[in-house]
Amino acid sequence: xxxxxxxxxxxxxxxxxxxxxxxxxxxxxxxxxxxxxxxxxxxxxxxxxxxxxxxxxxxxxxxxxxxxxxxxxxxxxxxxxxxxxxxxxxxxxxxxxxxxxxxxxxxxxxxxxxxxxxxxxxxxxxxxxxxxxxxxxxxxxxxxxxxxxxxxxxxxxxxxxxxxxxxxxxxxxxxxxxxxxxxxxxxxxxxxxxxxxxxxxxxxxxxxxxxxxxxxxxxxxxxxxxxxxxxxxxxxxxxxxxxxxxxxxxxxxxxxxxxxxxxxxxxxxxxxxxxxxxxxxxxxxxxxxxxxxxxxxxxxxxxxxxxxxxxxxxxxxxxxxxxxxxxxxxxxxxxxxxxxxxxxxxxxx
Length: 349
Ligand code: PMP
Description:
Blueprint: H1 5-8, E1 24-25, H2 37-42, H3 57-67, E2 74-77, H4 80-91, E3 97-102, H5 108-114, E4 118-123, H6 132-137, E5 143-149, H7 161-170, E6 176-180, E7 205-210, E8 223-226, H8 229-237, H9 246-257, H10 259-283, E9 294-297, H11 303-312, E10 315-316, E11 318-320, E12 324-328, H12 332-345
Parallel strand pairs: 1-10, 3-4, 3-5, 5-6, 6-7
Antiparallel strand pairs: 2-8, 7-8, 9-12, 11-12
Helix pairs in contact: 4-8, 10-12
Keywords: Aminotransferase, Pyridoxal phosphate, Transferase
Catalytic activity: an aromatic L-alpha-amino acid + 2-oxoglutarate = an aromatic oxo-acid + L-glutamate
GO molecular function, one term: aromatic-amino-acid transaminase activity
């Protein structure tokens, strides 16, 4: 059997260790609030002997109305990671380049390789932000896709609206720009780029959002993209048919009905995240300004040791040795432990 060597060499997607029953799972930027009863009610009594609506029409209609676009300007996938994969496959093939920041979302390199394309990683700035001028300079005539992640996973930093506009003015309109806004609802910085305010402004921009984070539906796998119809039609063609389940579609519709309550919880988490960052900085940590539901601890060579110390205290976190540790903002009860251990170890760095 000849398997593609670049696929065989891909590392498995790391999810972080499963949390023990009494531990806090702060390794996947999940929403710690329990599912809303209305959402749970909506996914009861499913006809699971039937296939779902392949086009997720009801969901697209709801999202289209909300964003002031047509249903064809919305594509729904099994998580926004699926929509991203479809977009990359639609635009970049063998030998084509996909430019993205690094460190950024760890799924990017794998999706690019599966498409047969080549990833071009542009290092973050010293203060853990996207380096947009360097990203622009990395674009060649082989570049097909540019991924911008704001807030950036795992550092939480946002791209400014102004610098994003300058970037869009400088890149060729034939380059597909994907703005990955998985954490958009957590952003409180009004100078940050907001994809929802840019719809229809560019013929080459697709904005990605997800129901996994703010809406707490990570386990059902549903995300979406908004952008120009020709790009989204190509992405639809690159999809695995029927991968957005009926449960996922019903849950989204129910979640949007109780959106005010869910977004109030997001407000609680955003405030908690701001408070944790402030406390960590007071302890001496150089924590980048995070607008997501997570914080980045630049632990350098101490990364594995400190992740173990947090694990021993019952906090499962995501370590990226030798750079740092990403900690999701979870239950209020986890915050005191986080700050206690961080206060102890900051002096050992
Ligand atoms: N983009 C970013 C930046 C993420 O952090 C994640 C989830 N970790 C995703 C996309 C994927 O989210 P989902 O597929 O659950 O919608």
